[in-house]
Amino acid sequence: MPKGGLLHAHLDATVNASFLLDLALKQPALHVRVSERVTSTTVVSLLPEFKALPSTEFSSASSVTDGSYVPGSWVSIQNARKSFDSSLGGPDGFDKWVIGALMINPTEAYNTHNTIEKA
């Protein structure tokens, strides 16, 4: 954009989150981690963190939903999606969780995050 053409923007308003996820899933270096295991009770509140890792740091961990997941450990985004617990929707549930974490939904916009301070 030309200087001054875009002074303030939010991710939700500039790029389609599904498109970003599709791009991310094509990147073998991209990994995801969470502060605790994703379960039916934590899936609504846990926010994923993403990072591209050098190949020397690739993780062998396979899931963020498995009981053996070590909180804060990196999992390849492809493995995390493929092994997302079926009770949480499997790969489609992973997509929904990630996209939901990247966007502010109408309930949040009008209630939870309805001021600059709350957002």
General description of the model:
With 119 residues, this protein is an alpha+beta fold. The chain has one domain (15-112). The protein is 32% helix and 8% strand. It is built from 5 helices and 3 strands; from the N terminus they run ααβββααα. The two termini are 26 Å apart. The mean pLDDT is 86.
Number of strands: 3
Q: How far is it from the N-terminal to the C-terminal residue, by CA? A: 26 Å
- Strand adjacency order, main sheet: 2-1-3
Helix content: 25-40%
Q: Find the structural class using helix and strand composition.
A: alpha+beta
Keywords:
119 residues; alpha+beta; three-stranded antiparallel beta sheet; globular
Furnish the topology, listing elements before pairings.
Elements: H1 11-14, H2 17-24, E1 30-33, E2 49-52, E3 75-76, H3 77-82, H4 90-102, H5 106-112
Antiparallel strand pairs: 1-2, 1-3
Structure summary:
The chain has helices spanning 11-14, 17-24, 77-82, 90-102, 106-112; strands at residues 30-33, 49-52, 75-76. The chain is an alpha+beta fold. The chain has one domain (15-112).
